[in-house]
Amino acid sequence: MNAVIQHPLFIPVLTTLVVCALFPLVAGYLVLIERKVLADFQVRLGPMRVGPHGLLQPLADALKLILKEDIIPEDSDHLIFWIAPIISTFTALTAFAVLPFSARIFVSDVNVGILVISAVSAVGILGIILGGWSSNSHYSLLGSLRSAAQLVSYEVALTFALLSALMVAGTLSMQGIVHAQQQRGVWFVFENFGFMIVPFVVFLISATAETNRIPFDLPEAESELTGGYHTEYSGVRWGFFMLSEYANLFVASAVGVTLFWGGWLPPFPSVAALGWFFDALFPALIFAGSGASSLVLIPKLPYRPHRILMAIIAAALVAFGALFLVPALTTWFAPVFWFLFKIALVIYLMIWFRGTFPRFRYDQLMNIGWKYMIPIGMGAVMVNAVLGMFR
Amino acid sequence: MLDVFFFYAFAALVLGGALLTVTLRNTVHCAISLIASLSGVAGIFLLQKAEFLFAVQIIVYVGGVMVLFLFVIMLVNLDTAARDRQFNRQWIAAVACVLAIGAEGVYFVRSGSGAWTFAAPSEFALSAGNTEDIARMLFSEYLVPFEIASVLLLVAVVGSVLMARREA
Q1: In whole angstroms, how far apart are CA A12 and each of A106, A109, A245?
Q2: Has the ipTM of the complex gone over 0.85?
Q3: Cα–chain center distance at B62
């Protein structure tokens, strides 16, 4: 047993298995959180029926998608129709291979990590384009044409934003970028006298466009294209497209967190006195606090099984929070907690965008991409190069 | 052992993809075969420990060039063009090229490995991270050719914008 745990491949293989097995569930709950947060913005309740406060809704949705009849249009290009969602899902999950979950928990630390993520996300575009084309439908074709133009345009701005951060880090390896921030004792978003905030904003806007999210969701604009590139898809294949979309959202947020927000580093990484507070107490308070506050909801629930389930979830949250106070576990849990916590904040921000901004028109989208984002990104690279010499 | 297996797998991908690119009738299928072929080249770069070239090959060719190819193919209806009689048949030139290259191949295979002179393996290719080496070479020794290439691309961009303007 010890030989297995000590093996150099143990953590990579385990991480791969956990990501592949767990991410569909995470994506399901991201959808639930998105619906709940949007409902909150619009003063509604959101899904409430399945489980207490709709907590089992993702499982019901997944079951529905798997059991639904799988329809392939008669005049579609069957082979490409079949393979397109696989390309999207496969590439989206491949990007997880270079994400630095913590200093010790990662699948692989290649010296071109950030380029690997760019490469697989570039291949992922093909899934959308081919899926739309092979459906042999005008809506789908328009959706995939839009997505091809949009993704190619915003990739340039995204690359300029990444370039600024990479110049500060001096390495392409995802682990190396976080270690560089540890060494300088500052998250890169505050580096270069605070000017790195500009490339971060460019990154955030381009990443929203790259992940096809509102206000840049023209490839699947439901009011014009009924669903865009996935109009003809149904059941589990449609589910694969959604899975890849949420995986891309997660990876884009993870890249932003790694490059600009310190990856798995806690806030103020160089101040040792705050170490225990941020590594143990803060996560413990977050989990125990959300567990305790869900206890308040129990008496209001109408059904007895819902009350029991809610009590179990609350107890589990409190117990999980208590785990952070065990010193042996803190060293393993705290970096992963901070990485995922920051990703959650970025995803919340993207859901906030969705609740706030209306969709852009197509010419506005191209104007923002080519006339604002790319020049600002280029300027940020030059200014950061000069500022980087004085820091 | 595993290296050899992957080399032949990627080589098969490159050659098979290239063959399908020129033989298939449907233009989108041709484009997909070309993508497979280019991905195979990227895989061979990776086998040679050129991680940077691997990533750039995929980003530029698969992610950029081929997406634009597909964009144009979908925008222009090529179904009718495929059924028309083709004017670009170059049978004589093609046969001459194939015969010449085939004769070269036969000559080299018959004369064995002595026909080649191998360069000594450089220490760059074996170093763990050759991204920095590529950057150093490009921006010091080969700076002038690199800049000329970028000026060439700039001319192409300006030219295409000018042509698009004139037609509008």
Answers
A1: 6, 10, 24
A2: no
A3: 10
Pairwise CA distance, residues A63 & B99, whole Å: 60
For the segment A188-202, what is each residue's pLDDT rounded down to a tens digit?
A: 777 777 788 888 999
**Given CB atoms, is A112 within the 8 Å cutoff of chain B?**
yes
B61 burial class (0-12, 13-18, 19+ CB within 10 angstroms)? buried
Global pTM reads 0.87
A65-76 in b/e burial notation, b at 16+ Cβ within 10 A?
Answer: beeeeeeebeeb
Sign (positive or negative) of CA dihedral A308, A310, A313, A315:
negative
Q: Give the relative orientation of helices A174-184 and A138-169 as an angle to the nearest 10 degrees.
A: 40
A133 contacts B74? CB cut-off 8 A: yes
Q: Which two tokens stand for residue B82?
A: 């495929």
Spell out which residues of chain B touch residue A111, defining contact as CB-CB under 8 Å.
Answer: 51, 128-129, 131
- A93–chain B nearest CA distance, Å: 17
Would you state the CATH architecture of domain B1-85?
Up-down Bundle (1.20)
Contact between B43 and B59 under an 8 Å Cβ cutoff? The reply is no
Three-state secondary structure call for residue A112 = coil
Out of B52, B62, B74, name the one closest to residue A122 (CB): B62
What's the number of CA atoms in the CB half-sphere (13 Å) around residue A129?
Answer: 31
Angle, helix A327-356 to helix A235-260, in steps of 10 degrees: 110
How far is the C-alpha of A347 from the C-alpha of A248, rounded, in Å?
11
Residues 6+ apart with CB under 8 A from B23: none
Give the pair of three-digit tokens for residue B28.
Answer: 């989108």
Of A161, A120, A113, the closest CA to residue A384 belongs to A161
- Distance between CA atoms of residues A161 and A158, nearest Å: 5
> Which of A77, A122, A141 has the CB atom closest to B63's CB atom?
A122
**Phi-psi sector, A245: left (phi>0), alpha (psi -120 to 50), beta:** alpha
CA distance linking residue A69 with residue A250, whole number of Å: 29
- The pair phi, psi for residue A170, each rounded to 5°, is 75, 15
Mean local confidence (pLDDT), A315-324: 85
Reported as a single tens digit per residue, the pLDDT across B4-51 is 899 999 999 999 999 998 888 778 888 889 999 999 999 998 888 788
